[in-house]
Amino acid sequence: MGDGILGYPFRRFLLGHPPIFREWSGSTALLDWLESSTSHIFKLNVPGFSKDEIKVQVEDGNVLHIKGEGRKEEYEGKEKDTVWHVAERGTTGKSDFSRAIELPENVKIDQIKAHVENGVLTVVVPKDASPKSSKVRNINITSKL
């Protein structure tokens, strides 16, 4: 994946917010990202996908990866006396999709919940309200090693 001049890891410093990595496969899995005081909420259009055809995973520590694998309908060999005039749904039906989002640091990875209803996948990522330890560590300076 080409990140260009604003690519990882510099995107966070220059843009001031976590980047969204998109893996586009021509799908209709459009994404909304909402933030409340207690959680981050991701909503994706997944029309026609069942919960068994969708995977929600956290990879590399903080990357939320959402994948959908749709099954294509089989039209051949059902009935010998059937003549198909139009078969658009099978060729343009559910297409696989994959979306990867880098999560902020203040989330509870182990408490992520997801559900699908009426063609919309909702993923709720709770925020961690406890203060994180500072990533700045002071080093003592001596006159001799």
Automatic annotation (TrEMBL):
The keyword Chaperone does not apply. It comes from Stylosanthes scabra. This is SHSP domain-containing protein. PANTHER family: HEAT-SHOCK PROTEIN 20 FAMILY MEMBER. The keyword Endoplasmic reticulum does not apply. Belongs to the small heat shock protein (HSP20) family. Coiled coil: none annotated. Keywords: Stress response.
